Amino acid sequence: MKMSKKLISILLSVAMVVTVFSTLPIASALETNDSSVSSDNSGTTGDCTWTFDESTGILTISGNGEMGGGMPWYDYDSQIKKVIIQDGVTSIGDQSLSGCYNLVSVSIPKSVRKIEGIPFSYCLHLENINVDSNNKDYLSVDGVLYNKDKSKLIRYAPGKKDKSFSVPDTVTNIGWCAFGYSANLETVSMNDNVIEVEEQVFSDCTNLSSVKLSNNITVIGENLFSKCENLKNVNIPNKVTEIEDSAFENCKSLSTITIPNSVTSISYSVFSGCTNLANITMPNNLKSIGGSVFYDTAYYNNKSNWDNQVLYFDKYLVAVDENISGECVIKNGTKLICDSAFSNCYELTGVTIPNSITVLSGGAFECSGIVNVTIPSSVIKIDADAFGSCGDLENVYYLGTEDQWKLINIEMYNDYLLNANIYCNGKLIEKVTSGLTGDCQWNYDKENNTLTISGNGKMADYSGYKDVPWINYSSKISEIFIKDGVKNIGAYAFYNCSRLNEIDIPDSVISIGEYAFGQCNFVEKVIIPSSVNTISKGAFMNCNGIESIYYTGTEEQWNNISIDNSEDLNDYLQMGKVHFEWTRPDTNGTTDDCKWNYDRETYTLTISGNGEMGNYYDYTDVPWNKYIEKIKYVSIEDGVTGIGRHCFYHCYRVESVTIPNSVKIIELGAFDECEQLSSINIPDSVTKIETCAFENCTKLSEVNISKYVSEIGDNAFSYCENLKSINVDLKNKYYISIDGNLYDKNVTELKQYSLGKTEDTFTLPKTVEYIPENVVSGCNYLVNVNIPENVEFISDIAFDNCTKLNNINVDNNNKTYSSINGTLYSKDKTELLLYPMGRTEEQFVIPNGVVEIGYSAFSKSYSLCSIVIPQSVTIINDAAFEFVSIENVYYTGTEEQWKNMTFGINNERLQDANITYNYVPTEPTIPTEPTTVTKTEPTTVTKTEPTTVTAEPTTSTTVTTTEPITSTTLPTTVTTEPSTTITTTPSTVPTTTQPTTTKPTVKKVTKVSLSKKSVVLVKGRSTTVKATVTPTNATNKRLKWTTSNSKVAVVNSQGKITAKGRGNATIKVMALDGSNKYATVKVTVKQPVTSVKLNRNSAILKVKGKAKQKTVTLKATAYPKNANNKAVSWKSSNTKIATVNSKGKVTAKKKGTCYIYATAKDGSKKSAKCKIVVK
Fold first, then answer.
1. How many CA atoms lie within 13 A of 272 on its CB side?
2. Among candidates 219, 231, 228, which has minimal Cα distance to 194?
3. How far apart are alpha carbons 829 and 807 in whole angstroms?
4. Please, which residues have CB within 8 angstroms of residue 491's CB and are 6 or more apart in sequence?
5. Each residue of 742-798: pLDDT tens digit?
């Protein structure tokens, strides 16, 4: 229930922001299926109908039965002033009136028997809730809603003018969010009859200054007083034992708090953001403290309270600086470490825990970089996840005996601790890698992290996951091989083997024991034979990743299996899609002239025979496709003469490949996406390396080309991002390498730039004429590229994904191309060909005279948010502005001219931006040569937008500006590394005029404003907001930037916001002249789609077959599961052969082969495809 309330609260917060600050309607996500929206001012909601009268502002709901949830009248939410619910309506739907900002009164008839959830939240002006006196379930007094016997206060009308309120003596329970957003309330008192106060009761009561709580409550609920910015006095009664998450978060006026000794648990972020809280009295017997409890309080921000980057409060360790490094010795006498105290301390290498600590809290060291930890013998319990995700942990030094170590209660998700080297009193505990389990044997392979169970008979049953003999390897096990002969899988046998993604149970197994695969939550595929007749309680508990079960028996046999689903612990197994009568894939076969064999236990694929391997269209077509994601080693034996097309494509786990001297040709895409392949020995026998042969081999660092190679196809080594050198034998007649880069023998064509080279500048040889596609793409180091005069052709995507590329400089004598300040143009400057994606400017002015913007010209220029386009531009080619967060377009032509412009596909972000027509820029003549200015580092100034200046005051150099400099004074930002709190001074572009030395008049800042009110980012991306100080001649313009949550987003001195993790944060910029003027921007960080999977890889359809043979419906799943937008679009590669609709239904049209693509709609371009053969 708590989680569902929390989710609703988040959704309502989003809805409120939209209602108050925008003209946009509340997100339709608040609707439910039982509410339908009409195009006019009436419609249905559940069993009822609704009508809105725009002239009076009255919403009327009538009918017989229940209202639906959601808001089908959301188009009118800001206009609704009064709600009349007529007799006959029996329920009021959850959130049904939420966010009706101007609603003043609600009338509830006698027929209403049920009020669901929080229908009146965010109704900030609601003054009266009037219940018919004949209603049997509810009552209203002075506009306040109660249950009939007045024992529960359900909702205080937040718009009431009263400044104080006393809870009636009859009330024993105060409902969820009962007083939330009551802006006029200043004091509230409750009598001691109240025994329960639910969550968020006083949240966002911004003027509430004092509350007297009942002495009989035992819990301070979640968000009880959050954002009560004026709360100064509150008593925590002596019976309270627990303070829940964020109870006092952002109570900025709270300066003193006394927590009684009855309290044993304080949850996460309880006092976070209480910026004046300096005086805190803590209880003596705390058993748990949540993370971030005192974050951004006066106590937290007082540096004198910190001891070597650790914040203590008496005997409690409450926070650790994330920048702490090296070894940390926790102070003697410390009794408790708060949850997540060392979380994200990635530079921390060691921790010594004192013997005053008996329990290590959950998440205490989660995600830290510790390598060594010293644990005293006083520790008797290690909570769940205390060392979660500590993948670097190598050594545990326990100051006790091995027998004492075994007695410690180590809860779940501490596998990295158990898998480390454990020293008891200085002696290393030996870890065995094999032994017995019941009638069977077990063996752990450290190199491949695999566990093999073999023998004839039953495995042992265990009473808990810590009792299994391979516990030291549980979190490392990536695959389990259960051999034929094993009859029973023991209880808890593979519990919490969290790296497993597939479970394959052999035909000999009869039963699966309790919790055998419990908490294996990354398992997607389970193979179960028809021999299994019993699946015990919790066997697949929390295996929430299960998508498919492959069952070798019939559906009837499956239904006869005894599956114990008591307490719903095997729900995820039963929710997966079952494929009946499934047969196991072959482990050997033929590939044209050759044979193949796959060894499952060694992950080795062996190719043997005399002749060439087969050629394949895709990795799904190769005969070993079922093992594509498992193969680690490829051994090609002598006699094989050709490595076929796409044979090892997408074998992304392959680490090594053996190619014999008999091989003559490596076909197209043969090793494409072999991401773990770090080296390759190409024998002298090879004469031909086809297109894309080693594309996307991202770990490949060096390639040697023999003198016998006569043909290398396009993109043979493209996107090999760690490739530092391609070395060609000097006797080769067709190719040559210069500085590790590959060219044709005459050095007229660049075949491949080695992307792993760390130089920031690349000057092509003067003889080069041709730069094909992708030959430099994906380089993360290049800043400058110099193009010589002989170059006649540069592919549109030659420099795709060069993340730092800032300048493309073309020789003045080049007859085909030119450049202005690092941007690539055609010679006559009528076509803008490429704006380097590494540029950090937020604005760009396209020179007048440009007619055409080339394919992908501005693609992935993530910093660019506004652009000036002259009316001379008539063509904008495909993807010119793809993946660009353009917010503002300034067009010098008319709206009609804009509409007549030719737009290619994938330019929606430009077309959806705010467009200003007839824009008149103050623009000097565009120079044909770069302008140089002496500054204190490379300086970028734009003409019509706020300016970004990169500067360090220590060095003076001559630089090239991206546009001509004017003498206009512009707001300035300074590039530095991101941090949580930074002070900076806005400056102006220097001029030669020196200021007069006079005593200035002190002018305070009256306003700080930001260029954006909210931003949405993908993790890892950045954007910059501009701060403007009013008046412009304020004496002290110094600003301080802060973030509310550095785990979500950080900000630097120029207002550059960088997304760190999914969630929400608030960035604040404050004037430091004492005026305390500030502005904020809300940041939402989203999770992009990282992969898309289809329910099938291929399908065969018939044009003239039965109806079922003509169609197939594909199902696409986007990952990860927490991606914000998991919607996909569908496309057929050939609609003449097969079409696909928006739901993935494929229909055969004529004989042939085509592919159906499902592509994520969130802009990540992740996709999956299915091969369709129509007969």
1. 23
2. 219
3. 17
4. 461, 462, 463, 513, 514, 515, 516, 536
5. 999 999 999 999 999 999 999 999 999 999 999 999 999 999 999 999 999 999 999
